[in-house]
Amino acid sequence: MSEETTPESLPLSGVTVVDLTQVIAGPFGTMNLGDLGAEVIKVEAVGRGDRSRGIQPTPAYFDTINRNKRSIEVDLKTEDGQQIVRELVADADVFVESTKPGRVESFNLAYEDLREVNDSIIYCSISGFGSDSPYENLPAWDTLVQAMSGIMSVTGEEGGQPLWSGLPSGDLITSMYTTQSILAALYARERGDIDSEWIEVPMLDAAISWLSARAGHTFGTDEPFPRLGTRHPTIAPFGLFSCRDENIVIAAGTQSLWTDFCAVLEREDLLADERFETMHDRSQHPEVLTEIIEAELASASADVWVDRLQAADIPAGPIHDTKSIWADEHVVRRNLKRTMEREGRDDAEVIDHPVHFSSLQTHLGTPPEELGESTDGLLARYGYDEAEIERLREQGVVGTGDDA
Amino acid sequence: MSEETTPESLPLSGVTVVDLTQVIAGPFGTMNLGDLGAEVIKVEAVGRGDRSRGIQPTPAYFDTINRNKRSIEVDLKTEDGQQIVRELVADADVFVESTKPGRVESFNLAYEDLREVNDSIIYCSISGFGSDSPYENLPAWDTLVQAMSGIMSVTGEEGGQPLWSGLPSGDLITSMYTTQSILAALYARERGDIDSEWIEVPMLDAAISWLSARAGHTFGTDEPFPRLGTRHPTIAPFGLFSCRDENIVIAAGTQSLWTDFCAVLEREDLLADERFETMHDRSQHPEVLTEIIEAELASASADVWVDRLQAADIPAGPIHDTKSIWADEHVVRRNLKRTMEREGRDDAEVIDHPVHFSSLQTHLGTPPEELGESTDGLLARYGYDEAEIERLREQGVVGTGDDA
């Protein structure tokens, strides 16, 4: 988490990733690789770039998922543009793409093409449904993946309609499998078990794998897992409760937590109430129990109740939103929101990598770049002289850095 | 994905993980390591085991997150029990734990303790809030992490209360960072950059990192990201729509998708309607647009409309639940639900690992075991003879395999 890193302290130091992904699924995964020390070269379409550069609010949305990447602006429909990427890949370890089916082939950037220039490349394809699916050509929007994977079906009020999980879960689950699978392949290559590798990460399959615990309900009962709002089928008190001003969450999920909870409420009389004797009893009377609890919680504010409950080590806390969370004592102490300074531009606000190591480190190295910010620098590093760069720019093979 | 693996084809072949985690966050992460070829030795409390062995429906719930693990039943409050784990760790590569603060120290299984028996151990601690938090002693239930991280705040109906994301997201996000961080450390160790390593994965921080795209809204506007049900703030038509029988999801998120969508509806007249001319126009009139669309969708069933829309490559699909999904054509073709046979027990139903490799493989090796199923086998492998095992069992140091 420290900014002071030595090359050896970054697990992926010296690893180069050529990144032909956009929006969230690919970029969040390659950001993880960058946080771990890889150099990520983000290849973007001339004049347009990653579609998420246009998602409101700009550039804040894009900035949160694109640190630690160098942006190069290349027209992959041109032979010269394809040649640039082949040269990047020749020196790289990993290539990641999330283009539409058939697109990398049309760019001459398929696995077989890139193996010709780099026989130890790890090539990762992110797609909606993989290469052997009835839905192969269907654009895999996150909301569609949430619907088709079952994620929406378990999200929502009891008796209400299925809802989004709020986070772009279909995308982010895919990101994590992308990072994980690339790391596994790098490890196998380092051990000498493989030369190069091709990896397919299908969004729908990735999302379905996360159903595991919920699908266990179906595998055991042959019933779909229900939507429960914030309730738990067999634990009470559990979920959202109103205090005088705001809601809080309480999860008094064991018998001893129930005893402690009644003590904090100064309602030890409830311990003698037959309706609430065992967890099973309590879960059979959730409505009357909630009514009794909320009558007590109405006497003070959410802040006060959270303090009292947490002081007794009862799992309870505020329901933060994406603004209030940054003032939380834990979040402030651990410095989770970071500002990355940029010369000549507004600073970027980002969320720090969450994992701590002892001798290894993660880093916030390069702030999110503007479209094509590193085009010239990268071309120069790969041997292009100024005249060549000028020619490529005039012919539209590389961008001018101006967003269209 | 194939069952026929050679040692070299599993990226983590030869890697041994000693696993002192339970419920979801740790076990889903170590299952990932097992899928990738690691041998995972699951250390469970005598007579009780992983708490999730008791979560209904049993054993289906537990089975979905505990394949590829060997169960050994050990009382860590005894010196002999601690010695057994030290011997396992002496030969292992990775140790993962998710016990309460102070617990591993009381078991003499802290990082410093285990480095004495294995100076190349990668030691991963999963906790709710990490070791430097005002909430350090608070039990980190998934629902609490969802509340405190902001995940609940973006989940729910417009104007309604915050809801769970349905999946145990706080746990599963933690799982993925656990797998990823261990892989990064294994890679660094293989390159010779580190000897041993200590890793801290805090659930709350992990969950907060997933806010990235949503927090971008706040960083750019200073406003919390709203709850939107299934609506999108700037895209229409988008979300859940009712057909004659059931709901489907449609995401016509570009101008050309809108044109194609109107063609499928046979309502090209809408293209000339001023209210719907641009994406911005359509997103300003979501209610009247939904009314018009649902009037058309009422003429046929969800199945029919999904076929028609998908045939035109429009992102649209069914809203599967945790039961209906297993009959989906894609899920069947890719064989995502698998049955693992067990001798003398009912088979286990599991969801396959979602990622495909070319030369590397993942596997479904060992089916989920009963509590302590491998106790004797593992003790024998580590040099305990029958008399010693008998003594340990009589003294309650290792279990009898009977669930209490």
Automatic annotation (TrEMBL), chains A, B:
Keyword annotations of the record: Transferase
SUPFAM superfamilies: CoA-transferase family III (CaiB/BaiF)
GO function term, MF aspect, one: CoA-transferase activity
Keyword Nucleus: no
Domain of life: Archaea
Pfam families with a match to the protein in the record: CoA_transf_3 (PF02515)
Keyword Transferase: yes
Gene3D superfamilies given in the database record: Crotonobetainyl-coa:carnitine coa-transferase, domain 1, formyl-coa transferase, domain 3
Xref: PANTHER family: SUCCINATE--HYDROXYMETHYLGLUTARATE COA-TRANSFERASE
Protein name as it appears in the record: Crotonobetainyl-CoA:carnitine CoA-transferase CaiB
Organism expressing this protein natively: Natronorubrum daqingense
